[in-house]
Amino acid sequence: MSTQSDTQPVATTKGHEVVRELVTQFGAETFKLQATCDGIPTLWTPKERLLEVLHFLRHTIRPYVMLYDLSAIDEQLRTKRRDQPPADFTVFYHLLSIERNSDVRIKVALSSDNLHLPTAIKIWPNANWYEREIWDLFGIEFDGHPLLARILLPSNWQGHPLRKSYPARATEFDPFFLDAAKQDAAQEALRFKPEDWGMQLGTKDVDYMFLNLGPNHPSAHGAFRIILQLDGEEIVDCVPDIGYHHRGAEKMAERQSWHSYIPYTDRIDYLGGVMNNLPYVLAVEKLAGIQVPERVEIIRIMMAEFFRITSHLLFLGTYVQDVGGMSPIFFMFADRQKAYDVIEAVTGFRMHPAWFRIGGIAHDLPTGWDKKVKEFLDWMPKRLDEYYKAAFMNGILRMRTIDVAKYNAEQALAWGVTGAGLRATGIDYDLRKQRPYSGYERLEFDVPLAHNGDAYDRAMVRFEELRQSLRIIRQCLDNMPSGPYKADHPLTCPPPKERTLKDIETLINHFLSVSWGPVIPAGESSQMIEATKGINSYYIISDASTMSYRTRIRTPSFPHLQQIPEVIRGSMVPDLIAYLASIDFVMADVDR
Amino acid sequence: MNTLTYANIFTIGIAMLKAIIILIATVAGAGLLSWIERRVLGWWQDRYGPNRVGPFGIFQFGADMIKLFFKEDWTPPFADVFIFWLAPVIGMSALLFTMAVVPITPEWGITDSQVGLLFFLAMAGVAVYAVLFAGWASNSKYALLGGLRSAAQTLSYEVFMGIALMGVVMLANSFSLYTIIEAQKDGWFIVPQFLGFCAFVVAGVAVAHRSPFDLPEAEQELAAGFHTEYAGIKWAMFFVGEYVGVILVSALTVILFFGGWQEPALLGYKLWPDFLPVYPFIWFALKTSIFIMLFILIRAALPRPRYDQIMDAGWKFFLPLSLANLLITAAVILLQQPVAGGA
Questions:
Q1: Residue B45 forms part of a structural domain
Q2: The pTM is what?
Q3: N or C: which terminus of chain B carries fewer CB neighbours within 10 A?
Q4: For residue A478, how far is the Cα from the chain centroid?
Q5: What is the pLDDT of residue B217?
Q6: Model confidence pLDDT, tens digit, residues A133-149
Q7: B301 reaches A (C-beta below 8 A)
Q8: Structural domain tally of chain B?
């Protein structure tokens, strides 16, 4: 390990057009450019000028329409910050421009004695939840925020867990006992008070009914609560309440080796399986400077697309079920079973194989894999045709979902919607095409689009994506490259077998790699992928240690749920159910 | 007036025995139906359904019954206790009583009431109270929404159900179900009353709260709707009530439009040669089973429309349809009658 330098050469973004524009507008002295491994221009901005800069980026020519991510970093224990300005905490804004197809990351330094920032809600409405999340987990306050309440943790929680001073293990706390008083207090903390949210209890003529939909409800798709303000069955307003599935995945990343964190990623979008490993290992590989063999890339794509199929099939089944059709889900479970047969044969597991590795995959494809894949490819298309006829041509289903929960492209972008929800509004933005990763540029497929932006279109886009995924898998099957299944690189973990147990050097290398795990060079990196539910990304900061210094997981479902009130106001309860079904979210993907 | 002779007591005894047998058979049939439905659904959905208890799982409903009887009979502390109890009683009994006027064969039936059809309509009206009471007395928001939906839905659908049946009444010139069956000797009413049949079947599904008209208990939206707070035997009574509804509506469809116990006959042509033996009960059971299967198939096949879409369909489509049916039937009958008084 000592042969490794503790930092990696990084891509320079000095000449990037957005950097030039910002420097022209605000002067070169305003910004400090930071080098990162992912090539996203990262600029440190003084706190005083933050809103101006954000406003400019939002309204410039070819604007940054989407607040893609917003989170913070506790810098207090970080040793290798190189060219970065002094900071106790850093808040970063990751902005995305569809027209430019490029991103910019704005960072603000904060010192512990003044953890305040102005809110960005007026510029991007979806800043609301992200700012609450930062307050919840880091204790940074956003001035001007309408209700800076806890979002992932219970409202009576003490402390801000993503701070480095907060313990990461239960054993560091006193033993926990739940007595009746504590239980009552926890129950009471869950009571919904409409006044807090600026909601009317009624008008002169109407008393509204406040209905708790969830956290346990057949159509909430997990532990998700949404409080409805009802006039009859019409939804006047609603407040989504998340956090019941929060497991502190980002905090855990700071206590796991780079390698042993992979299984945790599987469980972020628990229907995405190895698809979740992909952004994580790609980001780590960028930091480590690993170039994986072509065979690894294609195998990764093939398995990721298998999981896209299983996830989309479950979506379609539950979607039809949520509008009242009971049969399709059973047929789709049979199909998923066929897909899992292949996945199990290849990876050894079904839902959460944790099969990708830093620098490769766990093992090579088994003998006869091609036969299994081919069987599945022959089986599936006929079934899809049947579903189209039986479910999507059905008059009642169309009546229930066409023009229901409609939003346009502008709204989608303002709320940070990605994936099928965005493509259903007519925006051709699929990362596999726009920013090909892991070798997608070598494969042929189309990006299904729809233009109405309603619940039906979102389902139809996913339905067509199933066919495209089958097409991708067929190409993988027909053109599987030969070669090794792991990169020949010192940081590949675990190291290729032929590089272990040969002599004392390889023995020690292997021992360190599987006990401590690899030491990843210091730096910052990120990778976005087109996951099953939208764009998923990992923003990883290494402090040249065996563990990540900060792992930020940006999941697509989080902003999708934040958008609910705007879309559903004025609709009826059954429309909400159809809408929830059409979002295709997984609570683990929201709460992490 | 007749005095209570032994002969009379014997007749009364036989009648009571018949009534008890028919009621028990109906309830048992409803229980068995819960198993049949699950098996048939399983068959259509590429899975097994309950197949463990007894041959083909046929004793599943017995096992279910034991479970439901011994389950804690919990009444929520916030409920209106008396009405909370009353609701499942109405839910089970209202439609069960209607079996009293249903003719199974010429010999088997409890009573030949001159207002049999009206009795059915009245009882279907009473059955709504079960859902309304349950929704109200549970004192729970989901139950209340279910109750509200039910009130609106049943009101809309019973209006045209009655009207849809008037065509049959005009053709048979009677409200008695026996007379209606007799009137179909030479041709089932399905042909002259096709529109009425369509409207009645839809309304019948709605009265039985079966998918796709199961809005009062729409699982995906209202958890379990009006019976969210019910458990154990009280819940089972609603459940049995629903299946009795399925049997009853299927039986009535057969009686009103498919000639009841009679062998097939259409438009004056007998389709069953005279030299073949006639089995009234088998005809009745066979035809009723077909409609019961149809109920289950509909549940397997269709999604559920939205509440306001159901209302729209009821008031804007089926009500005009049944009114048109009524007018056309009346016009045809008038035209066929000999002209009285001259023109």
A1: no
A2: 0.86
A3: N
A4: 31
A5: 67
A6: 999 999 899 998 888 88
A7: yes
A8: 1
Distance CA A445, CA A458 (A): 19
Are β-strands A141-143 and A116-118 bridged in parallel, bridged antiparallel, or unpaired? parallel
Edge-to-edge strand order for the sheet containing A548-554?
A523-530, A535-542, A548-554
Residues of A in contact with B209 (CB under 8 A): none
How many A×B Cβ pairs under 8 Å?
Answer: 80
Mean pLDDT of the region A70-77: 91
- Label residues A56-77 b or e (16+ Cβ within 10 Å = b): bbbeeeebbbbbbbbbbbbbee
Asked if A573 reaches chain B (Cβ–Cβ under 8 Å), the answer is yes
At residue B342, the pLDDT reads 45
Asked whether residue B327 is assigned to any structural domain, the reply reads yes
Distance (Å) from the alpha carbon of A423 to chain B's nearest alpha carbon: 26
Burial class (CB in 10 A: 0-12, 13-18, 19+), A495: buried
Indicate the helix (H) or strand (E) that contains A92.
Answer: strand A89-97
Residue B37 lies in a domain: no
Is a pLDDT exceeding 50 seen at residue A44? yes
> What DSSP string runs through B113-138?
-TTHHHHHHHHHHHHHHHHHHHHHHT
* Domain with residues A7-124, CATH architecture: 2-Layer Sandwich (3.30)
Q: Which chain B residues are Cβ-neighbours of A325 within 8 angstroms?
A: 301-304
pLDDT under 70: residue ranges of chain B: 1-4, 215-221, 267-269, 271-276, 338-343
C-alpha to C-alpha distances, B192 to B103, B189, B254, nearest whole angstrom: 22, 5, 15
Contacts B45 to A, Cβ<8 Å: 326-327, 330-331
Question: Is A556:A68 a contact under the CB 8 Å cutoff?
Answer: no
Higher model confidence: residue A117 or residue B185?
A117
**Minimal CA separation from B82 to chain A, in Å:** 25
Domain of residue B154 covers 74-334
Q: Nearest to residue A266, comparing CAs of A255, A279, A256, A282?
A: A279
Homologous superfamily (CATH) of A262-557 is Cytochrome-c3 Hydrogenase, chain B (1.10.645.10)
The pLDDT score that the predictor gives to residue B267 is 66
Residues of B in contact with A324 (CB under 8 A): 211-212, 214, 218, 220, 302-305
CA distance B157 to B165: 13
Q: Nearest CA to CA, how far is B46 from chain A (Å)?
A: 7
CA atoms within 13 A of residue A534's CA, in its CB half-sphere: 27
Q: Flag whether pLDDT at A9 surpasses 60.
A: no
Touching check for B299 and chain A: CB below 8 Å? yes
Grouping H, G, I as helix, E, B as strand and the rest as coil, residue A377 is: helix
**Burial code of B316-341, b = ≥16 C-beta within 10 A, e = fewer?**
eebbebbbebbeebeeeeeeeeeeee
Question: Hey, where are the domains in chain A?
Answer: 7-124, 262-557
pLDDT at B3: 65
Residue B18 in domain:
no
A145 CA to centre of own chain:
24
User: Does A1 have pLDDT greater than 50?
Assistant: no
For residue range A286-323, list pLDDT tens digits in order: 998 898 999 999 999 999 999 999 999 999 989 988 88
Instruction: Annotate A3-47 with DSSP letters as a single string.
Output: TS-SB---B--TT-HHHHHHHHHH-GGG-EEE-BTT---EEE--G
Check whether A6 has a pLDDT greater than 50. no
Distance from C-alpha of A530 to C-alpha of A275, rounded to nearest angstrom: 9
The reply to whether residue A326 touches residue B211, judged by beta carbons under 8 angstroms, is yes
Place of tokens 């659908």: B157
Min Cα–Cα distance to chain B from A325, Å = 4
